[in-house]
Design brief:
about 375 residues; alpha/beta; 9-stranded mixed β-sheet; 3-stranded antiparallel β-sheet
Length: about 375
């Protein structure tokens, strides 16, 4: 970790305060003219402003000069990025109420072209597969993928970027030393090891309190040039990210889904209100003028993507399966009904097609074509 000045130490001290005290700390900084001056004048006279719990916590961390937090950052090989200093993300610095200190682990990639992909934690197979596909194709074109490491759409977006050996940034609603949810800790390690970053404005040991996540959403959109919504209901935390994106002047895109699906509520609302329709990476690359080369896929409003070529014998078992999957994924039961094959025969053909790379297995005993 680089050498930290007394002023920067004081800024870390205030940044590591409980989120409930942040508005009051802003008043203190304004009153005293800087974090170091707050440090120097932190006496019982500010007790009434902060309240007993916040005052006690800040007094304790001041007494040890933020030693535990600094040791945690060093153990994580993480760095504090200070607003107004080199290394602080320029897009984030331009939003309203940016973090004064952003803690980062890994290598913060270029944000010149960055897309936040957000959506429901309780995503459908369709939402998960589309989030991963679009993230993969964007990352393959050099676009950085931003998301929140949550279950569902967030995790799928990060995985898609990694599939393409691209760069992705996870914005946590907890401290860097307390990655949440636990099942995504391996994903978090992969993100860092493969050239991406984890970032948080919270103290390194901060728990994943529910009220942390709506506030951190302004960072997800703030780091990005555009935000893509995959699936979400009208009343969801994802709505806050969209609101932040609109307030920050970010372009908003939405993926169309089944009109009667709960997860289509917010995307359809946004599309009606003028959000950009996104069915593939090319839609975003084109509308954002980010194409390094012509998009590989047609837009959703044009022809459907090509299916893999059928074998010479169109009546063969594998041809029947490919034809059944031409428009959408199907479950094992649906394929049995459509092809008339026995479960054993169908299972053998599916295995051969999967090995040949023509189809892929999905959750819920479903299968889909692999599209180029």
């Amino acid at each position: 970790m680089a050498v930290i000045s007394d002023e920067q130490l004081a800024r870390i001290w205030l940044q590591c305060a409980p989120m409930g005290a942040w508005n009051r700390l802003a008043a203190l900084r304004e009153q005293w003219g800087g974090a170091l001056e707050v440090w120097k004048h932190f006496t019982p006279e500010v007790y009434s402003l902060l309240g007993p719990e916040n005052f006690s916590l800040l007094a304790d961390s001041r007494a040890v000069r933020c030693g535990p937090a600094l040791r945690q950052l060093e153990a994580l090989n993480a760095e504090p990025l200070f607003l107004g200093s080199p290394g602080y993300p320029a897009p984030l610095a331009a939003i309203a109420n940016p973090p004064d200190v952003l803690f980062a682990m890994g290598q913060l990639p270029s944000l010149k072209r960055a897309v936040a992909i957000v959506g429901s934690r309780r995503a459908t197979r369709y939402g998960l597969s589309q989030a991963r596909r679009i993230a993969r194709d964007l990352a393959a074109q050099g676009v950085t993928i931003i998301s929140g490491l949550a279950r569902g759409i967030d995790a799928a977006a990060h995985l898609g970027a990694l599939d393409a050996h691209g760069r992705t940034v996870a914005v946590l609603g907890s401290g860097l030393g307390n990655v949440y949810p636990p099942e995504n800790q391996d994903l978090a390690r992969r993100i860092v090891l493969e050239g991406g970053a984890l970032v948080s404005e919270l103290a390194p040991d901060a728990p994943p309190f529910p009220y942390h996540f709506p506030v951190r959403n302004r960072i997800i959109s703030g780091l990005s040039g555009a935000v893509l919504l995959i699936e979400a209901q009208l009343k969801s935390g994802t709505h806050a990210t969209i609101d932040y994106a609109l307030d920050q002047g970010r372009d908003v895109f939405a993926l169309p889904g089944n009109v009667d699906a709960p997860g289509s509520e917010l995307p359809l609302k946004l599309l009606k209100e003028g959000a950009g329709l996104c069915a593939c990476a090319g839609d975003i690359l084109t509308l954002m003028n980010w194409q390094d080369q012509p998009p590989e896929q047609a837009s959703f409003l044009q022809d459907t993507p090509p299916s893999p070529a059928l074998p010479p014998d169109a009546s063969s078992p594998d041809a029947q399966i490919l034809r059944a999957l031409a428009m959408e994924e199907k479950t094992l039961e649906e394929l049995i009904a459509e092809t008339g094959m026995s479960a054993g025969e169908l299972g053998t053909q599916l295995t051969l097609l999967e090995i040949s790379g023509k189809i892929e297995r999905r959750a819920g005993r479903a299968y889909a074509l692999v599209r180029n």
